[in-house]
Design goal:
Layout (H helix, E strand, L loop, with lengths): L6 E4 L4 H13 L4 E4 L4 H10 L8 E4 L2 E4 L3 H11 L7
Parallel strand pairs: 1-2
Antiparallel strand pairs: 1-3, 3-4
């Protein structure tokens, strides 16, 4: 089963989040960004992935999860787990 979206968990002022956001926007990849400071449930998701920490950016694509991945890693994960989300 393939993933239906790319979810990027972030928080305001995070330079790593800003860098990943910019890279994903340059790549043309659509993603859903969730602010963990505004969404306690999202913060819980991040803690469950990041060994109890609220480390962002954390990215989820179906079953694939990564803490502070590069744009290249996210695009490669999309190609593997959700190729239909890539631009033609």
């Amino acid at each position: 089963m393939s993933a239906e979206q790319v979810t990027v968990y972030s928080r305001p002022g995070c330079p790593f989040c800003m860098s990943l956001r910019a890279g994903l926007q340059r790549s043309g990849l659509e993603f859903n960004e969730v602010d963990i400071w505004q969404d306690p449930e999202a913060a819980g998701v991040v803690r469950s992935i990041a060994d109890g920490n609220e480390t962002v950016p954390t990215v989820v694509i179906g079953d694939w999860k990564a803490v502070n991945p590069s744009t290249r890693e996210v695009v490669a994960a999309v190609a593997e787990h959700a190729p239909h989300l890539l631009l033609a």
